[in-house]
Amino acid sequence: MTVDISLYGIVDPEHCKGRPLDELAAISATHGATLIQYRDKKNDVRDMIRIAKIIREGLAGTGTPLIVNDRVDVALASGADGVHLGQQDMPVEDARNLLGDQAIIGLSIKTVEDARTCPVDIIDYAFVGGVYTTRSKNNPDAIGIDGWLERASIIKNKDPDMPVGAIAGIDASNAAELFQIGCEGIAVISSIYMAQDVGEATRRLATLLKESKT
Fold it and tell me: Which tens digit of pLDDT belongs to each residue from 198-211?
């Protein structure tokens, strides 16, 4: 499955200035976000399913898929388009068996060993990070541009068509350099969803992406 990860927005109740996640997701989707992930480290499963369903309804008609972070059960129950897994989450083989061939499954890559063992035949995309330091997640050991290139090249050697993106600390000041080195997508939280004008923040990053391809 071909998945457009170029502008990957992550909505999170702890990084939204108290605003409704479905509204923020819809605004960013209509201003250039190509994929939306729902990440939630504070609510219980029941509330996560309810919120995911609301976000999915908010994205209806935008053509932008909804991905749930970590929780395969929430993705299944909410009717989301897929799941994004970390190295300590459910194995991607099990997630694929549960979600089916049509689901989108992404994987976080942190270490060189993660890249070497990346199951490219099962997942649809990978995000490598953390590239820069960030306040949205505990990330004391940023890998930088060189670290991203090393891990991405390992994945690309396994599957040249696998979309590989970057995550952590990305904003309008550093997105362009990532696109210039071949990064196929940026995952962003604060630079979009902590902005006062979410639409403008999304549009600014989408413009940088477009300019990098010309």
Answer: 999 999 999 998 88
